[in-house]
Amino acid sequence: MSPLLTAPRAAALATAALATLLPAVAWTAGATASTAATAPSGPAVAAAAASLAPEKKCTLPGGLAELSGLAMSRRHPGVFYALNDSGNTNQVFAVDCSTATGRLAATLTVSGVGNTDWEGLALGKDASGAPAILVGDIGDNFSGRAEISVHGFTEPERLADATVTPVTYRFTYADGRHDAESLLADPVSGRMYVASKLIGAAGRLYQAPLPPLTGQVNTLTAVGTAPCSPPTAPSPRRAPPTSCAAAGRWAPTRHPSTTPPGPSSRTSPSRPSRRARR
User: Do 115 and 88 meet the contact criterion of CB atoms below 8 Å apart?
Assistant: First the structure.
């Protein structure tokens, strides 16, 4: 069987939730619509909840057993992009979730780069202002990376299997090395943000310079705290990111899969079948 996904409900940026994604455990992500806004409460929350559109769900195709990033398309309604974690292929998968059964619409192979520790996925802007898919190679579980990187390429106008050539931005943190699993992008300015991850403590939100430069290392500077990962998580893995243009409330449910989503994708190990929603 395949994972189960609920469609997005609200935009988000600075407070995008870093929920833990574990085998057979669902995660949700939600946040405020502004980087400066404070979270509403009481009647405001009730009113907002009442105005939400009905949920839509679809099953994901196989091969995403190490799903590590999700971002909704800006060009193709009902389509979102997904990627797998480190040790998997250097590919981004376009999944058409406009019907109850998700369909693999395209496999985008990112040329010239490896999947060191792909953890984040977001929709930003390219140099011309067109929608761009941003792949965050930002994981660093053991604080051993001197720099991290984000690979960006223009979102395709037509969905078909293709090899894309990215623009790569290199980054270091102003205050030392950090593990991170969430990449975000402001839908208006295109500025990128990285949220660091700590188990049992609040991480920090770092912003990239605007625009970031190629051919040199850019510095990420802290601008605030990030949500806290649960201290009881039995594994340091998984905190899927959400882009501010496509965030909302998601509830994917993990299921075993041994079928890769693309002809050149690596087969993922099967896991015990168990549904869990929260």
Answer: yes
Tokens 């407070």 belong to 15
Q: How many CB atoms lie within 10 A of CB 262?
A: 17
Structure tokens, 6: 């609920």
Nearest alpha-carbon partner for 122 in 249, 27, 240: 240
- pTM score of the predicted model: 0.68
Q: Give the SS3 label for residue 49.
A: helix
- C-alpha 232/C-alpha 199 separation (Å) is 8
Asked whether the bond before 272 is cis by omega within 30 degrees of 0, the reply is no
How much is the pLDDT for 228? 57
pLDDT for residue 186: 94
CB proximity list for 268: less than 8 A, separation 6 or greater: 62, 63, 64, 65, 66, 84, 88, 257, 258, 260
**Range from 104-108, 173-177, 206-210, 272-276 carrying the lowest mean pLDDT:** 272-276
Residues 156, 131: Cα–Cα separation, whole Å = 9
8 A C-beta contact, residue 193 and residue 185? yes
- Which among 68, 116, 104 is positioned nearest to 242, based on CA atoms? 68
- In Å, what is the CA distance from 114 to each residue of 62, 117, 150, 183? 22, 9, 12, 18
